[in-house]
Amino acid sequence: MVRIMALDVGDKRIGVALSDLMGWTAQGLETIERSNIKKDLQRIEEIINQHQVGKVVIGLPKNMNGTLGPQSEKVIEFTERLKKRINIECVFWDERLTTVAAERSLIEADMSRKKRKTVIDKVAATYILQNYLDSVSK
User: Fold this and answer.
1) Beta-carbon neighbour count of residue 59 at 10 Å?
2) What is the DSSP string of 76-101?
3) Could you tell me which of 120, 115, 127 has the C-alpha nearest to residue 14?
4) Collapsing DSSP states into helix, strand and coil, what is residue 30?
5) Looking at the predicted structure, is the pLDDT value of residue 121 above 90?
6) Which has more confidence, 95 or 73?
7) Which residues contact 138 (CB under 8 A, 6 or more apart)?
8) Cα dihedral 79/122/51/38 (nearest 10)
């Protein structure tokens, strides 16, 4: 069995989440502080190899009307670079409102603003992955 990994790609950080081996639940793994594209891709490749990842789900930040904006273009470009390094399937997943949902859950957990900033991307990646897993299990 292989795991599915989700990425929430931002300009400053990349949130990473992994599925369990059965593909039922998503858990946040880490937040990668972005430094340069080569190091970012290298870290993702290490995670893929370490956890036997068989598919990568990348959150695609669409506008509320469904169109793609500048951030979407950055994510698509990042994904194209990633695909050149790995030999597994990469799929996009509409991530509208996942960061909002992640922020809301962290506020409800009474987490400080400073602490939220360090985990929000990982939690958003978890939401992306769980939504994807729920959609394919139906």
Assistant:
1) 29
2) HHHHHHHHTT--SEEEEEE-TTHHHH
3) 120
4) strand
5) no
6) 73
7) none
8) 40
137 DSSP 8-state letter = -
Partnered with residue 132 across adjacent β-strands are none
Separation between Cα atoms, residue 94 and residue 57, nearest integer Å: 10
Query: Does pTM top 0.85 for this prediction?
Result: yes
Domain residue ranges in the chain: 3-136
Q: How much is the mean pLDDT over the chain?
A: 89
Angstrom CA distances, 120 to 13, 21, 45, 46, 70, stand at: 10, 24, 22, 22, 21
**How many residues belong to the chain?**
138
> Around 15, how many Cα atoms within 13 Å sit in the side-chain half-sphere?
29
What CATH number was assigned to the domain covering residues 3-136? 3.30.420.140
Instruction: Tell me how far apart the alpha carbons of residues 34 and 117 are, in angstroms, rounded to a whole number.
Output: 14
